[in-house]
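Structure first, sequence second, as always.
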């Protein structure tokens, strides 16, 4: 079985490109923190190459930027090519089947104004409810669900 699940931050603005057959794709590097500290007590980061195709690639290029936090599910794909100097080069990429956006709109806007420092470890989530970010704050007291919606 060839399955990969990663959570990390995009290291540069994803750029949308097209194949000769006009199929959209994007490539980006994902910074993923390791779950342990090294001998010096520092947490190291791996930079993993990701390839995304078609509509999902268009969404990523349109809505994500450097520092965006995402979850990627996919498979590892290896390849090789001959470089201009004649040497053989090997590649390893994760071909994404699914990319989930993990930042809220507010976090994305704040990050756009302040560059992300990859040396800072991410703040772990808390179990406290953040009232300022309540997505249902403007809903009111009642919610009506039409039973015909599920048909």
């Amino acid at each position: 079985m060839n399955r990969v699940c990663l959570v990390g931050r995009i290291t540069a603005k994803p750029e949308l490109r097209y194949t000769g057959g006009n199929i959209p794709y994007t490539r980006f590097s994902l910074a993923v923190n390791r779950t342990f500290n090294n001998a010096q007590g520092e947490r190291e980061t791996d930079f993993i190459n990701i390839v995304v195709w078609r509509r999902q690639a268009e969404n990523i290029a349109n809505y994500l930027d450097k520092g965006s936090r995402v979850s990627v599910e996919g498979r590892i794909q290896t390849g090789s090519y001959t470089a201009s100097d004649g040497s053989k080069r090997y590649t390893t990429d994760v071909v994404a089947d699914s990319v989930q956006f993990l930042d809220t709109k507010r976090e994305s806007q704040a990050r756009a104004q302040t560059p992300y420092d990859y040396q800072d470890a991410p703040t772990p989530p808390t179990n406290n409810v953040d009232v300022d970010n309540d997505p249902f704050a403007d809903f009111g007291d009642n919610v009506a669900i039409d039973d015909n919606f599920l048909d």
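Margin note: Residues 121-127 have pLDDT under 50 and may be disordered.
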